[in-house]
Amino acid sequence: GxxxxxxxxxxxxxEGEDFTTYCNSSTTLSNIQWYxxxxxxxxxxLIQLVKSGEVKKQKRLTFQFGEAKKNSSLHITATQTTDVxxxxxxxxxxxxxxxxxxxxxxxLVSP
Amino acid sequence: xxxVSQHPSRVICKSGTSxxxxxxxxxxxxxxxxxxxxxxxxxLMLMATSNEGSKAxxxxxxxxxxxxxxHASLTLSTLTVTSAHPEDSSFYICSARGGSGxxxxxxxxxxxxxxx
Lengths: 111, 116
Fold this sequence. Notes:
The structure holds 2 protein chains of 2 kinds. Chain A has no helices and 11 strands. By secondary structure, chain A is mainly beta. The chains are: A mainly beta, B mainly beta.
């Protein structure tokens, strides 16, 4: 079945440092989505990437979708303590019948 | 975004009893609902996918008779954990998506189940 791998599992940075999490799928994805889950909360949708090679930005967050539509990355510039949480990528298979999540990257930001 | 309401948010039950968790889409029709289970500091593991009016599709390793899923209407899906055991204690979370062309999944708030 479809597998989505995400690295690193955990990262601890100082406020102001950059952060990147990477996502890789075993199969070509229809699209990829990114979610953020705060401790004790539920996943909240951040963004969706559909096109091969697509790059989208949300303020300090930059999302990329690979040319082969099998990998993606989320980069946060100059992290803030409000960025703390677990970031998940999730990919839809062809046919949009299954949304598979990566294991997530837990980000901790120290002031 | 659309709102998905999940109830209850926390439940404690005795071993051997059954617990029902509801997932409602409040302002859209959810043609597909997903049920996930999340252990502490781990990812969301898909348990089953349900489409309104049809039987749920369970992931490998998930017991159909233990985790009963009903998606009777376009706004409501339920997960019933039958004969609960302490190892069923976990965070259960549902998500829903609307009709074709809408691929964003909206999540409920999750249910923390503790079986004692």
